């Protein structure tokens, strides 16, 4: 199954970032086939080389995916190597609750003209 839409994000820097890892808290508001909110934490690191950086994040979503209510968590890994980027956003195994029990999948995120868009390919196997 595929869910698409947009989300907005609000980032807040952590005040106790002792390792200068760019630790941020964030909230997202999803619209489209995914409707609800998520909260998460992100660590990022930029280098002295322009276009090179990395980030990891964990977020927990509460709401509905294609009308199915529940909660699910995602883990992010993003790397930029001199401008060439790769991003992985995957469902945390066995994190689905309610009607999202057994959910697996991956999400692509594109930012175009300042708008965050998602494309989430997923399956729900409640027998899992």
UniProtKB/TrEMBL annotation:
Q: What InterPro entries would the database entry show?
A: DUF3224, SO1590-like_sf
Which organism is the protein's source? Shewanella piezotolerans (strain WP3 / JCM 13877)
What is the protein name given in its UniProt record?
Answer: DUF3224 domain-containing protein
């Amino acid at each position: 199954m595929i869910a698409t839409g947009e989300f907005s994000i609000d980032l807040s820097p952590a005040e106790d970032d002792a390792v200068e890892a760019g630790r941020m808290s964030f909230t997202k508001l999803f619209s489209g086939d995914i409707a609800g909110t998520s909260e998460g934490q992100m660590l990022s690191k930029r280098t002295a080389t322009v276009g090179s950086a990395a980030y990891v994040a964990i977020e927990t979503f509460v709401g509905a995916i294609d009308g199915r209510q529940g909660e699910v968590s995602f883990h992010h890994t993003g790397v930029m190597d001199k401008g060439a980027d790769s991003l992985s956003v995957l469902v945390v195994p066995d994190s689905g609750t309610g009607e999202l029990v057994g959910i697996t999948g991956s999400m692509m995120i594109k930012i175009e003209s300042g708008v965050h868009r998602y494309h989430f390919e997923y399956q729900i196997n409640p027998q899992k």
